[in-house]
Amino acid sequence: MNYTFIEQQEKMFIGMKFAGPFHVLPVEMPKLWKEFLSRVAEIPHAIEGVYYDISDEDFTHHIHTEYIAVEVERFETIPYGMLAFTIPARRFLTVTHQGPMSKVPDTYTQLFGWMKENGYELDLSTFRIERYDHRFLSSVDDPAREENAYEIMIPIK
């Protein structure tokens, strides 16, 4: 795996969210993706062709919040049932996950192992981001597709 550090500029997003315990994500996230993709055309000023899964973990209350979103050029009208938010500029460690969705936990295990071995620490005060572009076919459509690829962006201290 190739690990890269990037300085990400501030970004604005509009999307939908799900919050609940981690163990329900495999059931609930495909539903959220399906609903979001059916409504993404409602979002004004969207930057097309790239989708984001943005995660926030509350370890105290064991709640995992996932936002499925698109980056937007500006906030104007927020479609019903969606929300708008901004992620400030910050430094991320990035890696590309390649392969079926069933292998995502292995990618994260390798990533966090590399971070520990190299003295990097996850910043729990902010979001983890997954960036999906043309290389990825939504897990709603084909979660076992070997050619799937997307960027994992981990905030580091």
From TrEMBL:
It comes from the Bacteria. Residues 1-157 form the AraC effector-binding domain. This is AraC effector-binding domain-containing protein.
